[in-house]
Design goal:
Number of strands: 0
Largest sheet: none
Distance between the termini: 76 Å
Order of helices and strands: HH
Strand content: under 5%
Shape: elongated
Structural class: mainly alpha
Helix content: 55-70%
Length: about 60
């Protein structure tokens, strides 16, 4: 009976691994690239608005 219990442990692990694998590999709803591209556009515009000020020797410290 103890041998069956030891065989049950890997069996349960295999079942758990297969369930996790099917959950991890599921097709997720794709949001599209629109949100990311809009964020990048806002970032780029913000970077263009902020002028680059060169540091003088007194600003270095």
């Amino acid at each position: 009976m103890a041998a069956l219990a030891w065989l049950l442990i890997p069996l349960m692990a295999a079942i758990g691994a297969s369930l996790w694998g099917s959950w991890a590999g599921r097709n997720r709803k794709a949001a599209g690239d629109g949100v990311e591209l809009a964020g990048y556009t806002r970032f780029r515009e913000a970077m263009e608005r902020t002028g680059v000020r060169e540091k003088t020797h007194s600003d270095a410290f």
